[in-house]
Amino acid sequence: MGMLTVCTVLGTRPEIIKLAPLIPLLDGQPGLKQILLHTGQHYSLAMDAVFFAELGLRGVDVQLAVGSASHGVQTAAILTGVETAIQQHDIGLLLVLGDTNSTLGAALAAAKLAVPVVHIEAGCRSFVRTMPEEINRVLVDHCSAQLLAPNESARRQLLAEGLPDRDITVVGSTAIDAARAFAPRSQGRSIVADSLCRLGLPADAPYLTCTVHRAENTTPEVLPGLLRGLSRLAEQYPILWPVHPRTRRILDELTLPVPPQIVLLPPVGYLDMLALLSNARALCTDSGGLQEEAYALGTPVLILRNETEWTYLLDGGCAVLLGNREEDIGSRGQQNLVDSEQQKMRQAARVLSAQLEDGGAAERILAAIKARWL
Ligand code: UD1
Ligand code: UDP
Asked: SS3 of 78, please?
């Protein structure tokens, strides 16, 4: 039997983190050769290299270095770069994760060359088509040959869209597995104590962690109100906020006032992020990956959006939708933070099946790929 060459594609912070458990498994699989391709969509040290170092990942085989640009220019550069790589390396299977422009550009390049695509995190939907990620997810699912869904509701969504049952496998979430595996290593970090110290507070003072980076939340129309809402929450508990470069740029451009109880940090590494997360009273976020990680670590989530792809967190009482307007965040957020509510969210029963939370998502992904393609 010949060797199957698999191209694993990553390009942004969450793809690096979520693919980290799988990459060594693919490298060690007999009969399979892995080409690790980085699109270069994320490139700053704090958005990229830091995660390779912390997660012990090997170097990439192909670096497209596409960098930042408009959606069209960036996706086109990824598409043409991946097309060339597929031809040069005689790729027989392409693996993508999630919903970024890297995911879409790579999947399209492969599909056009009739190279089968495996999509991890298939079937997640926000049902908001103006969200760039929603377009990416839908298109990638519909040009993929194998759909690896994180949970049953994602599987049902794929079936509802007419995708064939035989192509779908529920595998769980590598984000949840990685967060649980790495959380103990994050406990010695000093980031929480150092940040609270800047406010003259003791290391064990209660605080909130926050992140904001979605396109729809970082506009001049939305971000000022969102920040005012967070400022009201910060009257209750200080907020420690590692700021995404996109958000930093808009905050600087708009010169928005940030109260001292909101501590702005540069983007942090994975271990510092887990430390900020696991000790927080709650997480306020519009991130997808962080919602799942907070669930994994038992931290309640206040979602700064009107919808989420991770509806099981709402159903299980682990998260609430706050929206992105001042009133919604300020008043409803404060209400949700009162202790009784918080206890309710913290005590929420595990909502995924035990079978999906055994730390074995990466192994299940490998098993599904082997069963279908080797
Ligand atoms: C992208 C994904 C989003 C994902 C997020 C993870 C798309 C459409 N969006 O959004 O789904 O949740 O990554 O973080 O693919 N920048 C830097 N350094 C970097 C990367 C970006 O400074 O290493 C700045 C640039 O000013 C850039 C801006 O951030 O213009 C946005 O980067 P981009 O990759 O276009 O989108 P994200 O907001 O990161
Ligand atoms: N993350 C990190 N440092 C930060 C912010 C996020 O390590 O300053 C990690 C986080 O733990 C999660 C991933 O990055 O694993 C989520 O990325 P992001 O929120 O940028 O994207 P999304 O998940 O919304 O696509």
From this structure: helix
